[in-house]
Write a structure and sequence with these properties.
42% of the residues lie in helices and 12% in strands. A hairpin with a 2-residue loop joins strand 2 and strand 3. By secondary structure, the protein is α/β, with parallel strands linked by helices. The chain binds pyridoxal-5'-phosphate (PLP). The site of pyridoxal-5'-phosphate has 15 residues, from helix 4.
């Protein structure tokens, strides 16, 4: 049965799919580094009647009537985002991280301009110039990468010497910092120095570490980069969406790039949910949450290393661990490992490692992250247990019985760390929304 307060009783097909997805999330271990469990409060705002409202434009400057409440909601979200990150201006309308990046490019660049961004096969994102992305087709991207692997783990760091050389040679209009698969902290200051030296703008895409920055456990680029883009659904634990921060001098350009440049009506229900998430991230408990994400990633990394996995960049300083599978088993590509782990109830994604000999579809690595299970209450002991279960599943993958045993142990562990132990909001607010804020997240 769905816990949607009966609002979906008239559509058993969708109700049953949603119930199945809730069941999947509650009974398998979520190690996808870009995922999280939002609070029931975020879910409630996402499922609210604001989805009915057209609000093209910005608070006080809308194209439709009836926006007095939407204006307050969006203003609240903007104020909370600015307060949380110490920014002058926030645009909370981007539908996703990709849209936020497109808007930033549109605000700062002309088609054909040169952008330096991180190599996609070494941690960069599709919107950092992939040839299959509109970004790669519109601008001239030049990629910087990471240093080669070193036996002592000191390699596979962003190669700032290479970045400086490329910047001097290519004279980019924009340098993009930020990554989707990079396990070390990224200091924004050397990027600023290099950008200043060559007269480039600096954009920092903190899609992944935004929540860690809000929690104060990762360096913030706000006030250093010209524009900061992020997603609200990764470590920040809000609804699926994007946002942009900038100084006053770029505010108008950024706003115009989002609307009318790229989007029509904003998703005000999602913006309400972003406001809820920014509010949650400003609480002292969120600082503790951020610190626990890092402790848990370190514990996961430590046990994985003991189990015989090589860790890219020698370990982690954030919420992610990038595993090179080749030392563990040279005949186990990332794709096969991901499939085995799915059968064992451990959800993660295959990922290329720097200088990967295998294709992006096959890969030699796995990317793991701790934000979701940290929200569910797991601590360092459970992370060590998860690492051992993962290693066992991969080691014993040919043995169906052994795999079923791992799956049973995963189920048992998940039962003790249920992300949604209470009732959940239904498809409208007022659906079974009793005790929403209670009983989650802060157990460890
Ligand atoms: C996730 C991510 C994005 C895109 O976010 P979507 O919401 O999936 O569009 C952009 N940049 C980086 C670095 C990311 O990790």
């Amino acid at each position: 049965m769905s816990r949607a307060g009966g609002f979906l009783d008239g559509d058993p097909e969708v109700a049953s799919l949603l119930a199945s997805e809730l069941e999947r999330q509650r009974t398998t271990i979520q190690l996808i580094a870009s995922e999280n469990f939002t609070s029931p409060a975020v879910l409630a705002a996402s499922a609210s009647v604001l989805t009915n409202k057209y609000a093209e434009g910005y608070p006080g400057r809308r194209y439709y009537g009836g926006n007095e409440v939407a204006d307050e909601v969006e203003d609240l979200a903007r104020r909370r985002a600015c307060a949380l990150f110490g920014a002058d201006h926030a645009n909370v309308q981007p539908h996703a991280g990709a849209s936020a990046n497109l808007a930033a490019y549109q605000a700062l660049l002309q088609p054909g301009d040169t952008i330096l961004a991180m190599r996609l096969d070494q941690g960069g994102h599709l919107t950092h110039g992939s040839p299959v992305s509109v970004t790669g087709a519109t601008y001239r991207f030049v990629a910087y990468g990471v240093t080669p692997a070193a036996p002592d783990g000191s390699g596979e760091r962003i190669d700032l010497d290479q970045l400086r050389e490329l910047a001097r040679r290519e004279r980019p209009q924009l340098i993009v910092a930020g990554a989707t698969a990079y396990t070390r902290q990224i200091d924004p200051r050397p990027f600023r120095e290099i950008a200043d030296e060559v007269g480039a703008r600096l954009m920092f895409d903190v899609a992944h570490p935004a929540g860690l920055i809000a929690a104060g456990v990762h360096p913030s680029p706000v006030g250093i980069a010209d524009v900061v883009t992020f997603t609200t659904h990764k470590t920040l634990r809000g609804p699926r969406g994007g946002a942009i921060l900038c100084g006053e001098e770029l505010a108008k350009k950024i706003d115009a790039a989002v609307f009318p440049g790229l989007q029509g009506g904003p998703l005000e229900h999602t913006i309400a949910a972003k406001a809820v998430a920014f509010g949650e991230a400003a609480r002292p408990e969120f600082k503790a949450y951020g610190a626990r994400i890092l402790e848990n990633a370190a514990a996961l990394a430590e046990r994985l290393a003991e189990e015989g996995f090589r860790l890219v960049a020698g370990g982690t300083e954030n919420h992610t661990v990038l595993v090179d599978l080749r030392d563990f088993d040279p005949d186990l590509p990332g794709k096969a490992a991901q499939e085995v782990l799915d059968r064992a109830g451990i959800t993660c994604n295959r990922n290329q490692i720097p200088y990967d000999p295998r294709s992006p579809f096959v890969t030699s690595g796995l990317r793991l992250g701790t934000p979701a299970e940290t929200t569910a209450g797991m601590g360092q002991a459970e992370m060590a247990q998860v690492a051992s279960l993962l290693a066992r599943a991969l080691r014993e993958r040919a043995d169906e019985e052994a795999l079923a045993k791992v799956r049973a142990e995963v189920r048992e562990l998940c039962a003790a760390f249920d992300p949604y132990p209470g009732a959940l909001p239904g498809v409208t607010p007022g659906g079974a929304d009793v005790g929403l804020a209670e009983g989650r997240g802060e157990r460890a």
